[in-house]
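Before relying on records like the one below, remember that each one covers exactly one chain. Contacts with other chains, cofactors or solvent are not represented anywhere in the record.
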Amino acid sequence: MNEGGQDSGRTARSVKRADARRNEKTLLAAAAEVFVTSGVEAPIRDIATKAGVGTATIYRHFPSRADLIVAVYRHQVEALAEAGPDLLATSATPHAALGRWMDLFVDFLVTKLGLAAVLQSDDPCFDPLHSYFLDRLLPVCTQLLDTAAGAGEIRPGQDAYELMRGVASLCAGAGDNPRYDSRRLVALLIAGLRG
């Protein structure tokens, strides 16, 4: 095959890979929405309908429900991890970036896509998810805290793990109680970090 033929073959594969990645992101977004409203045991056909694809397409990307749940969880964690640096670049102050990121973190924790029970299951395929969560999000939270401290907006020496555990504990109490506003409590906590 000539050089031009090889280039067009590589281009076709690149386009196909880009399409596959786009399709996978669409499936993950649809699954996340369905999991929020119906839980992780929602019928695959509901996810397929939401994504505008057939169920075979979902099974081609994610052979089992566990594969889909893990992929959705990782996708949500990645979005949260990527948001930190973006917020630092676009927010008026580092403290504002920290507050906005914590809002996203609260959304993740409160609407954790029905994953709380899954993460406590005996299925070993879910074991690495907690470590993945910490590995991806602790550095982001640390960066936000360090930047805000460096700007003199919060007291230095704040521990990201401790803060994230505290926020998670505040969110755990939310349930369906309309008188319990975890977002308001987290905002008070973040305001209290000011020096």
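The first helix runs from residue 3 to 38.
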